[in-house]
């Protein structure tokens, strides 16, 4: 849904500072005086004091008088009643005598009649305006009708239509002119009327010798003569008219180009009607004694300005609409020479029509006195304003020219000088450019120029509303007397096209030496009455119209004049004092609700001040509220009557007299004795819509605090002495060596020297750092004592534990934006004298930030001023260089531990080398911190010292991407055929007695990360079979070593792991045949001897005897 445009504009204005509240020009009860819209009643307004009675004079430039729109002026009462027309309509006060050649040579006469009728219709004929008489001549002269015969255009035209041609053989032009001068102007002529004669003839006069005398007499009588030469007779006969034209030019007033006309024949007379009529009308406001008739058509009086010695008049039409400025004085007109303007208005730009004199005013400087100002809004299309001095010798001195910046802006169409402080010297010159185009609209602009020494300097522009609409802001600018009663004159600017041609005015307040550029009040036509249009086309404000001692404002609109009344301004001075002046919490002097309390009284006072002298005995009603500790959830102060608000109280104040109200209140025990108890007072006028209005910008609130007594010396200046002590639970290297490594003191001293500085050890199981701290106050009360805790980025604050036996308390504020800083309040609101607070701080090690050092900074302070000499012990800095105990798991594994070398072992099975092996050393970081600065050193025995290869290392692998390793010795070439070498005396080969391959790797492990170091190779079987030994051990050694500057240490010094290959060899089994045969025979012989010996001893017989008794009886029976 589209909002109405006026509503959108009003909403936009309400958002702009200064437009949400009106000021002291009342918009609720305007006096709207209605008039004719067609006459443009309200085009100008002027406040007047006539005989002590105030009137509003309103211009209606299109008012009709008779049949002509002559314009008029109305006099309107300011409070009630109807306006009276003054009948001052445009007075073309002329007596015109038309002298017609009626001789026989004029033909056809009907064309002359048509010309006569048409020119008569151009004249404003009527009482107080133009009178017309007609004389016809030939050989004689007659009155067709006299000047005062007819009083209207209709009657004169009717009479002229019946004029017949009288004829005649002679053309006595000199006689006809003299007849008109001596008789026609006397019969019905008026004193003071301008005399105009129009002579129309078609041939040379028969009494031309008399012309010189006749013309001289006409000049003496100030008769302006227009002469029309009709060339029909000469053209019809082919006669040269040069002599005739020279005669007619002689008859016409000077200059000829303004007063002489010629036409080809009688029928062509109709072509000069308009030009002749315009030139006659332009005579009004000019005199024959003006040396240059460049001021004809000048529209002298288009603008005017009253000065000490006369009236300054603008003549925009002068000099072919380039314009001019005249001054009407008691001694006559001062008309500057045209050449005086040429410096600023050069001849080459004369066709542009500068319209100099469109508006005129004057300024006063302390050096140059009064200087005139005139605007030329069409100069070079951008406009110009000149500041000049006019001399009685008709010369001008142009002091300065101000130029417009935009084509068509009409810069200089409105000019107003402002003396804001009434010291007689102009402070500001305002120049309007109402057609200035901005933001796609004809918004208008008002330029501000301030006086610096004797020149006006550009100083910005006045601000209108921020709505993008056609406004023509600056169409009218008025310097008005002090509206807001601050003793400085103000400015009102009209914008008659704002709000869809409804119009608005802007009020700008003056200040010493200038005018505020932002308006204090905007008044739109819609606020005042429905149907107002072009409100703000004219403005005036110099008088107190309703006798209330205040300047009122008159504003013109289309068909209306509006009077806006000023309201008196009041300033409310508020004050608040307390008895006693401070809250003594150490001495409770009363009881409230059964509790000890400190009782006080507040005295709230108001004094109204009216800047306007007329209101020194006036009264004004106010309402006020008083609140204690408004922004606190639980107020510390309470009214004796109950509650904490003193609300909705009314008071009637008399001008200049103080009115006070006593407010009794009390303070009970509270935790906050530092911040004072604040009283917040709000006050406003009881009836803001009527009567006085509160001065713009005047405070309507009062904030006063009553402090607590701090309990210190008589000077109430507390001098504390804070002492802070702190130590951590981190062990030094010496403590770590003795307690953890359990080494003797002598060894531990050497252990500490292994580090480049004093270090503290972080054991692998430690996750926190504890700090024991004690803060005490050895001086007077310390108010708002704080403890600032900051730590290095590798620490995170975990907790603060307050010791039970402490005399104070400590509370910390959580600041999420400051991760490594914390502020704690100590015994808020004050840390008592001689008090102590003990506490423990715990910090956790960060999992994301690792540093070689640790820093904890504790700083105490307060709002009380401690002496510099005692501030050194207010801080404690714990800074430690750290060594971390690495928590690593170091293991090894191998695919081969024992191998037996047999005689029949074949190399073909192992690709011609020997059995393969795979060794793995694994390191796991089980700790919290990333491990670095550690080197893995691996030595692999690959050959004996005699050069016999023991094994071949085929590859070395690690699974850690950022690990860098160096391998030495793996490229050594050993003999392919082994030599005899007895290793039975060195059965164990390692890095100390063998040729080795060395591998060094830098180790970096994040927490819970592991890495593997893998060795792949083969035993060198060819050498192992050839070498002399029964059992052989080959040991691969791996060790972890910390670099010198490494932040890590190991609980076991250089932890190492080994992988051992045990090699054994099978015994040789070749025995000679003869030994085998001899052994066999010897064995058989030995057996035979043994059997014989046993038989001899009776071994076999004893056995027989033992068996006989036991024979079974059954066989006996069988036998």
List the helices and strands and how they pair.
Blueprint: H1 5-14, E1 31-34, E2 44-50, E3 53-60, E4 72-77, E5 84-85, E6 94-101, H2 109-121, E7 130-137, E8 141-145, H3 153-160, H4 173-184, E9 194-201, H5 211-220, E10 223-230, H6 232-237, H7 242-251, H8 256-259, E11 260-263, H9 273-281, E12 300-307, E13 310-315, H10 318-321, E14 324-329, E15 332-334, E16 359-365, E17 369-376, E18 384-390, E19 396-403, E20 414-418, E21 428-433, E22 437-438, E23 441-442, E24 445-452, E25 455-461, E26 476-480, E27 490-495, H11 498-501, E28 504-508, E29 510-511, E30 514-515, E31 521-524, E32 538-540, E33 553-557, E34 560-564, E35 569-579, E36 590-592, E37 595-609, E38 619-628, E39 637-639, E40 645-654, E41 659-667, E42 677-685, E43 693-694, E44 701-706, E45 722-728, H12 733-739, H13 745-752, E46 759-762, E47 768-777, E48 782-783, E49 786-791, E50 795-802, E51 810-813, E52 821-826, E53 830-831, E54 836-845, E55 853-861, E56 875-885, E57 888-894, E58 898-901, E59 916-925, E60 931-943, E61 951-958, E62 965-968, E63 988-989, E64 995-1005, E65 1010-1019, H14 1021-1026, E66 1031-1042, ...
Parallel strand pairs: 6-7, 6-9, 9-10, 10-11, 35-43, 46-56, 56-67, 58-68, 63-66
Antiparallel strand pairs: 1-34, 2-3, 3-4, 4-5, 7-8, 12-13, 13-14, 14-15, 16-17, 17-18, 18-19, 20-21, 21-24, 22-23, 24-25, 26-27, 27-28, 28-31, 29-30, 32-33, 33-34, 35-37, 36-37, 37-41, 38-40, 38-42, 39-41, 42-44, 45-47, 47-54, 48-53, 49-52, 49-55, 50-54, 51-52, 55-56, 57-59, 59-65, 60-64, 60-66, ...
Helix pairs in contact: 2-3, 4-5, 12-13
Signal peptide: 1-22
Transmembrane segments: 1073-1097
Membrane topology: Single-pass type I membrane protein
């Amino acid at each position: 849904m589209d909002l109405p445009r006026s509503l959108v504009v009003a909403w936009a204005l309400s958002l702009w500072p200064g437009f949400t509240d009106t000021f002291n020009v009342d918009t609720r009860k305007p006096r709207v005086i209605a008039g004719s819209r067609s006459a443009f009643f309200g085009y100008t307004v002027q406040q007047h004091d006539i005989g002590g009675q105030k009137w509003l004079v309103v211009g209606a430039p299109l008012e009709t008088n008779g049949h002509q729109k002559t314009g008029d002026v109305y006099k309107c009462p300011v409070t009630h009643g109807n306006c009276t027309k003054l009948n001052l309509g445009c007075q073309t006060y002329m007596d015109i005598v038309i002298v017609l050649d009626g001789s026989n040579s004029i033909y056809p006469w009907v064309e002359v009649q048509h010309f006569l009728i048409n020119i008569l219709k151009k004249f404003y004929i009527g009482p107080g305006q133009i009178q017309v008489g007609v004389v016809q001549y030939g050989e004689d002269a007659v009155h067709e009708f006299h000047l005062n015969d007819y009083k209207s255009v209709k009657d004169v035209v009717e009479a002229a239509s019946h004029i017949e041609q009288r004829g005649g053989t002679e053309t006595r032009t000199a006689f006809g002119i003299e007849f008109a001068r001596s008789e026609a102007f006397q019969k019905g002529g008026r004193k003071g009327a301008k005399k105009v004669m129009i002579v129309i003839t078609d041939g040379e006069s028969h009494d031309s010798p008399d012309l010189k005398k006749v013309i001289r007499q006409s000049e003496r009588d100030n008769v302006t003569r227009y002469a029309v030469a009709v060339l029909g007779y000469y053209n019809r006969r082919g006669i040269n008219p040069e002599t005739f034209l020279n005669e007619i030019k002689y008859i016409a007033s000077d200059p000829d180009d303004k007063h002489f006309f010629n036409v080809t024949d009688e029928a062509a007379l109709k072509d000069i009607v308009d030009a002749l009529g315009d030139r006659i009308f332009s005579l009004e406001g000019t005199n024959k004694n003006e040396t240059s008739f460049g001021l004809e058509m000048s529209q002298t009086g288009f603008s005017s300005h009253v000065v000490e010695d006369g009236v300054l008049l603008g003549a925009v039409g002068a000099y072919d609409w380039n314009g001019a400025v005249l001054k009407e004085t008691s001694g006559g007109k001062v008309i500057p020479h045209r050449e005086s303007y040429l410096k600023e208005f050069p001849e080459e730009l004369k066709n542009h029509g500068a319209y100099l004199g469109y508006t005129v005013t004057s300024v006063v400087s302390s050096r140059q006195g009064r200087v005139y100002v005139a605007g030329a809004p069409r100069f070079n299309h951008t406009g110009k304003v000149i500041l000049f001095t006019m001399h009685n010798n008709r010369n001008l001195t142009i002091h300065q020219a101000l130029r417009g910046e935009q084509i068509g802006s009409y810069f200089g169409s409105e000019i107003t000088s402002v003396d804001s402080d009434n010291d007689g010297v102009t402070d500001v010159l305002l120049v309007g450019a109402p057609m200035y185009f901005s933001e796609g609209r004809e918004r208008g602009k008002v330029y501000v120029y301030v006086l610096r020494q004797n020149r006006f300097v550009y100083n910005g522009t006045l601000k209108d509303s921020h709505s993008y609409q056609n406004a023509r802001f600056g169409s009218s600018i008025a310097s008005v007397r002090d509206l807001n009663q601050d003793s400085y004159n103000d400015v009102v600017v009209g914008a008659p096209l704002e709000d869809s041609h409804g119009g608005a005015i802007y009020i700008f307040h003056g200040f010493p030496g200038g005018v505020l550029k932002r308006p204090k009040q905007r008044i739109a036509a819609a606020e005042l009455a429905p149907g107002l249009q072009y409100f703000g086309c004219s403005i005036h404000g110099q008088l107190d119209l309703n006798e209330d001692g205040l300047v009122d404002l008159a504003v013109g609109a289309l068909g209306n004049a509006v009077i806006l009344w000023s309201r008196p301004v009041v300033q409310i001075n508020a004050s608040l004092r307390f008895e006693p002046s401070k809250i003594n919490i150490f001495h409770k002097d009363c009881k409230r609700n059964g509790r000890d309390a400190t009782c006080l009284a507040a005295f709230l006072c108001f004094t109204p001040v009216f800047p306007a002298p007329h209101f020194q005995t006036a009264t004004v009603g106010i309402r006020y509220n008083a609140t204690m500790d408004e922004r606190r959830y639980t107020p510390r102060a309470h009214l004796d009557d109950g509650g904490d608000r003193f609300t909705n109280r009314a008071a009637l104040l008399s001008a200049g007299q103080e009115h006070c109200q006593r407010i009794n209140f009390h303070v009970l025990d509270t935790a906050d004795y530092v911040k004072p108890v604040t009283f917040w007072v709000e006050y406003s006028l009881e009836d803001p819509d009527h009567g006085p209005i509160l001065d713009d910008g005047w405070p309507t609130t009062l904030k006063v605090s009553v402090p607590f007594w701090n309990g210190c010396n008589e000077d109430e200046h507390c001098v504390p002495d804070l002492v802070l002590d702190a130590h951590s639970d981190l062990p030094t290297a010496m403590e770590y060596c003795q307690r953890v490594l359990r080494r003797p003191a002598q060894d531990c001293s050497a252990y500490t020297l292994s580090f480049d500085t004093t270090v503290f050890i972080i054991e692998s199981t430690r996750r926190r750092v504890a700090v024991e701290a004690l803060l005490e106050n050895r001086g007077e009360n310390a108010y708002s004592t704080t403890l600032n805790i900051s730590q290095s980025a590798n620490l995170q604050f975990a907790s603060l534990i307050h010791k039970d036996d402490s005399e104070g308390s400590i509370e910390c504020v959580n600041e999420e934006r400051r991760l490594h800083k914390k502020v704690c309040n100590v015994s808020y609101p004050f840390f008592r004298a001689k008090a102590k607070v003990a506490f423990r701080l715990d910090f956790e090690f960060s999992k994301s930030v690792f540093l070689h050092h640790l820093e904890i900074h504790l700083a105490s302070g307060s709002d009380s001023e401690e002496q510099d000499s005692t501030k050194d012990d207010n801080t404690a800095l714990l800074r430690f260089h750290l060594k971390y105990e690495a928590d690593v798991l170091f293991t090894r594994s191998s695919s081969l531990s024992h191998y037996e070398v047999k005689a029949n072992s074949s190399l073909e099975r192992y690709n011609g080398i020997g059995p393969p092996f795979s060794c793995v050393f694994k390191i796991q970081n089980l700790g919290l911190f990333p491990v670095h600065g550690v080197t893995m050193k691996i030595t692999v025995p690959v050959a004996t010292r005699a050069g016999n290869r023991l094994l071949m290392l085929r590859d070395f692998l690690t699974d850690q991407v950022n690990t860098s390793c160096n391998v030495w010795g793996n490229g050594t070439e050993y003999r392919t055929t082994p030599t005899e070498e007895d290793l039975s005396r060195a059965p164990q080969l390692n890095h100390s007695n063998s040729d080795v391959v060395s591998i060094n790797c830098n180790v970096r492990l994040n927490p819970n990360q592991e890495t593997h170091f893998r060795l792949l190779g083969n035993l060198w079987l060819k050498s192992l079979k050839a070498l002399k030994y029964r059992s052989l051990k080959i040991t691969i050694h791996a060790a972890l070593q910390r670099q010198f500057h490494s932040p890590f240490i190991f609980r076991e010094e250089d932890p190492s792991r080994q992988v051992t290959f045990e090699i054994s060899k099978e015994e040789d089994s070749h025995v000679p045949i003869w030994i085998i045969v001899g052994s066999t025979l010897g064995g058989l012989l030995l057996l035979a001897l043994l059997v014989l010996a046993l038989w001899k001893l009776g071994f076999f017989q004893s056995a027989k005897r033992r068996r006989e008794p036991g024979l079974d009886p059954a066989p006996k029976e069988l036998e």
